[in-house]
C-alpha cells in the first residue's frame, strides 16, 4: 500500500462480562467473555517537515528523539517500528484513559500501532496487530496484564477466549446481528466514576491472591454464561453470572473497593460489577427494562454519570488517510 502523509485510526473499548483476571499468566487456565463497545481510542499520526517529535495526549510533548517521550506506550510503539523523529501524534478517547476498566491501555496501543503501520505503508492483519500490542505492553514495558484486552481491541465482537497460563488457546465467536446486540445493551447501564483519580491497574493486579480456584471458577461461569446466551428469556441469569464474577474479583484482587463502597452500591441493587482492575473503573449494572430509569438515577448519585453505549462487532480500524 502507498504510504499516506496523515492517518486516523481507532480501536474499541470493551466490557468484560465474566472471567476477567483469569487471562493472567499466573493462572494455569482461564476463560473470559467480553464484547467491544461503540466507544473508542483514537490516534492521529502524520509526518512532519522537520526532525522533531510532537505528541499530544493529556500532556504536550516536543522532543528531538522518541526515546525522550514520557508516554511509555507511544514511545515503545515508535521505537519498535523504527520511527525516531519527524512525526506528530495525537491521541484521545471517548472515556478517560487511566483506570477506566474498559481496556483503554490496550485500545491505545492498538490504535497507535495501526496508525503508525499505515503511515509507513504496511497493512497489518488483526492477529498480527494483537501480537504486536502484546509485545509492547507485556514484553517491552513488562506490564502485569493478560491478553483479553488486546484481542478485543483488534478483533472486536462478542468473544469467548480460553487461556493457558495467559496465552490464548481458543477463540469462540458469539456471532450475533446488530439488532440483538442493541437489544442486549439495553439491559446494561455503564457509569463513569467521578471525584476520583485514575489508578494504574498494575498496582492492584500485583496484590492478587493467585488461587487455583479463581481460574476454574471463571471457566464455570463462562460455560454457564454461554448456555444462558443461547437460551431464551435468560437475561437475568446472564446478569447474575456477571455479578458473581464481580464478587470473585473482589475476593481475588483485594483493594478494589472499600466495604463502605460495596455496602452503598448493594443498597441499590446487587446487579453491579466494577469493570477492570482498579477501584476507579466504570461500573456496569445489569437491569430489566422496567428498572432501568430507577437504576440510572440511583447509581448516578452513588457512582457518577451514565455513559450511554451499545455493543458492536467492530475491531481496530483505519478511518481516514490522506
Structure characterization notes:
With 322 residues, the protein is α+β, with helices and mostly antiparallel strands. The protein has a single domain, classed as Ribosomal Protein S5, domain 2. The protein has ten helices and eleven strands. Strands 1, 2, 3, 4, 5, 6, 7 and 11 form an eight-stranded mixed β-sheet that branches. Strands 8-10-9 form a three-stranded antiparallel β-sheet, sandwiched between helices. The two termini are 13 Å apart.
Mean pLDDT: 91
Sheet/helix structural class: alpha+beta
**Domain module count:** 1
Give the helices and strands as they follow along the chain: EEEEHEHHHEEHEHHHHEEHE
**Share in β-strands:** 15-25%
The CATH C-level name is: Alpha Beta
CATH architecture descriptor name:
2-Layer Sandwich
N→C terminal distance: 13 Å
Largest sheet data: 8 strands, mixed
Instruction: Please report the total strand number as a whole number.
Output: 11
Instruction: Give the helix level as a range of percent.
Output: 25-40%
Radius of gyration: 20 Å
List low-confidence stretches. none
Number of helices: 10
What's the CATH topology name? Ribosomal Protein S5, domain 2
Instruction: Assign an overall shape.
Output: globular
Entry summary:
The protein is α+β, with helices and mostly antiparallel strands.
List the helices and strands and how they pair.
Layout: E1 6-18, E2 29-47, E3 53-56, E4 60-63, H1 72-81, E5 87-93, H2 104-119, H3 126-140, H4 148-155, E6 158-164, E7 167-173, H5 178-185, E8 188-191, H6 201-205, H7 212-229, H8 235-252, H9 259-266, E9 272-274, E10 283-286, H10 292-302, E11 317-321
Parallel strand pairs: 3-5
Antiparallel strand pairs: 1-2, 1-11, 2-5, 2-6, 3-4, 6-7, 8-10, 9-10
Helix pairs in contact: 1-2, 1-3, 2-3, 2-4, 3-4, 7-8
